[in-house]
C-alpha cells in the first residue's frame, strides 16, 4: 500500500504542513483575543464618556424610561398601530393648552365687552 507523499503513515499531515496550520490557528486566536480586548476597551471608554452609572444613580426612572423607549424602537415598535394611537393622543394632549388659552382669551374678551356695554346681555337676564 502506498502513501501520499504529504501524509504520514497514520493519515495525518506531514510535520512541515502541520506547523504552518498550527501557526495560522495560533495567529487567528491571537487576532481574536486582540479584537475582544479592543472591543472591551471601546465599551469601557464609551461607558466612561456617557457616565452611565452616575446617570442611573442620579435619575433611575428617567434612565429606565429611556431604555424602554430605545428597546421599543429597536424592537420594531415604531411602525405599529399602538404607536399611531400614542402619537394621536400625544398631539391632542400637546394641543390642549393652546386650545384652552384660546378659549379663555375669547371668553375674557366677551366678558369685558359685556361689562363695558359693547356686548348684548345673555337672553333672560335683566
Automatic annotation (TrEMBL):
The chain crosses the membrane at residues 61-82. Residues 1-11 have a biased composition (Polar residues). Residues 1-23 are annotated as: Disordered. Keywords: Membrane, Transmembrane, Transmembrane helix. This is YtxH domain-containing protein. It comes from Corallococcus macrosporus. The lineage of its organism: Bacteria, Pseudomonadati, Myxococcota, Myxococcia, Myxococcales.
